[in-house]
Design a protein that fits this description.
4 helices; Arc Repressor Mutant, subunit A; 3 strands; PadR family transcriptional regulator (chains A, B); DNA-binding; alpha+beta; homodimer
Amino acid sequence: MSNNNLIKGSLQTIILKLLEENERMYGYEITQRVKELTAGEIKITEGALYPALHKLEAEGLLSTEIQQVDNRVRKYYSLTKDGQKEVHSKMSELQSFVENLQRIINPGLKPDFSL
Amino acid sequence: MSNNNLIKGSLQTIILKLLEENERMYGYEITQRVKELTAGEIKITEGALYPALHKLEAEGLLSTEIQQVDNRVRKYYSLTKDGQKEVHSKMSELQSFVENLQRIINPGLKPDFSL
DNA sequence: ACTATATGCATAAGAAACTGATGTATGAAA
DNA sequence: TTTCATACATCAGTTTCTTATGCATATAGT
């Protein structure tokens, strides 16, 4: 996607949600999953992803587990209990944000949406 | 809203869209309109709004017109021709961003959405 | 008289979250 | 041997916000 600056603020939510669905993932896998799910339109850069993962870990929302695969090191991330709670919180924030966005942007809107 | 950091990147779009619907607005009016449309959940702060307006004006997307109302100065903003084009561009960016967000976040999603 | 609130503009320090470049390392393909 | 893919990471710089502050007018409350 040409202008990706809308990601700001939603990257953490994306990470947490993917980890809720996938149990455990490593960084590179996350970038590939997002690219795949969005047909290449959203590309999570490493410079954004890794600091975000480290921060979530520092906040106690993610735990890590290093693993060796084919002479390559992988750092797997999983949700902690706090992380599992936070997913729902972040998701409802995102949902209400999108609703509010629709209220601002859609002049005559029926209360219909679905994130 | 408690965590407003999702706004990042969408403020310009909001401003442009409101001006497309309202022909001309002044800064304070924009903050009030957004607050009203979102039942107080999104509050555009002045520290975010005014720099954003100035930037859009510097980019040639908005034009201004000072007006005196009740001994108070108002600075009205309107879309320029470039601004009118940019609204559509920004809106389709926003729409595809939300679509992509849904693809990432909603596991089994029907291609149904509406921003 | 004083204070708070509303209207209306604006700037500025600091924080947060990015981009884009760079670095290390392994391995396969061209 | 150069590029690409996999896999981690850091860092300078930029953008975009928050929070505080400032100026100015007017009304309402205490």
